[in-house]
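Appendix B, record 7
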Amino acid sequence: MRYSFAHVLSSLAGSALALPAPQGSAVSGPVDPSAVVSDQVLPSGASGSLRGSEALIGFAAANPISTESTVIPTDEFELGTGQSADPDEGLYIDLTNVKNPQPIRGGTTGPTDPGPRTAAYDALNSDIFAPPTTDAGDVGQAKWPFGLSHNRHGLAGAGWARNQNVNQLPIATAMAGVNMRLSPNAYRELHWHKQGEWALMLNGSVRVQSMNEAGQTFVDDVQEGDVWFFPPGIPHSIQAFDTGCEFLLVFDSGDFSEDNTFLLSELMERNPKEVLAKNFRTTTKTFDTLPDGQLWIFPGTPAPKNISEQNVTGPAGVIPKQTQYTYHFSQQEPLKVPGGSIKILDPTTFPVASGFSTALISVEPGAMREMHWHTTSDEWTYFLQGSARLTVYQAPGSSRTFDFTAGDVGYVPVPNAHYLENTGNETLVFLEVLQAKEYSDISVNQWLGLTPKQIVKDHLKFSDGFLSTLKTDKPIIVQGNPDLTTTDFTPSAGGS
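Structure tokens (predicted):
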């Protein structure tokens, strides 16, 4: 049947006539917001008014102006060590035990901060609060304390975990971290993920177990200071012994989330029982006892002390020694250098972790991880002990100085230059992680020492005497003085 335009219109009109009439409203016309405000019922016990008068808008000669000074008098605050020195020296300022710390360098005449503020934050981050005069421009936030990450708890007090990813530290696009705790005998349930997992044991001991695509198996026990690595997609489990444990996980993607891993419990729950029964050649009743919801971190039966009881081997055998998933890093002796020590773990000695190159570094009080940069990878840093500061230099003319303590994460994008100076009175210990096939860096000391002296002199106007002291080797760590107000580090003054 063909329909004319007139026929369509008449049909629509008929439909409209057949519609029910709209219901009446108690409100006639548009609502006046001021009437709603004036008629608003206030809670019992309230006094005063929610809003002020329109007479308060803009200028009026009668408006009061406060004459009370906001400058904090010098007798109401203290200066920290190094705070009175010439600001161009750039000394570290210790505000940790200072009354009412202020953002001042070079005496008491700088600008004060009457608040609102939390003085504890300022004391922990003195180089942000009272930055060196050399800081300039705009540099992305390079610090995240795990203490500010949401702490997700497992079942029945079995442990917890907290993330650091791009949601917390946006510049950390290449790597993310997880700090995890397992109570005695607890499991991190069988799982896998699309990212590679590099781990450092922080305390306690665990048993790790896995299997690869060929059906080769692996089980091992690791303790504080040891490392494991599971490649992307490789399923694994982690169980604490009766001492409990804590470990650090580093993933090769900045958007990794501990909440988004593939879990065995969810794999079972998200498939039809008929499919599960067919897959495992059993009856659907087998799966009536499956846990309700994910396990993630949960209490477990104590692992047998004899590891051979859990050494399950199939026709393919065990994973070959050179590609096994653990490295007993705690047994590796560090290279000792003036001012500290370093030990490196990269694919040269741990081949299965093909994209992870790491260094565990200790720096004595007053000493410094020398100025350097990396050529192919961002640097993800975790602080295990002590306190430090780090300045990030970003081309062409920006820099920012950050302060770190144990439990913090630092991040420096490639190829930004930086150092790490021990600002405390105990040994600084930190972990550097690179996405690289070999751990390497460019030493500023060595670079200038291996550049013709005339070229360096023409650039920086250094004296011939100083040019003759430039090193041609790579110091890694440079000695200093525990007195952080020191400015003379020449050998005659006791420097290295």
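Remarks on this record: Confidence is low (pLDDT under 50) at residues 1-10, 12-17. DSSP finds nine helices and 24 strands in the chain.
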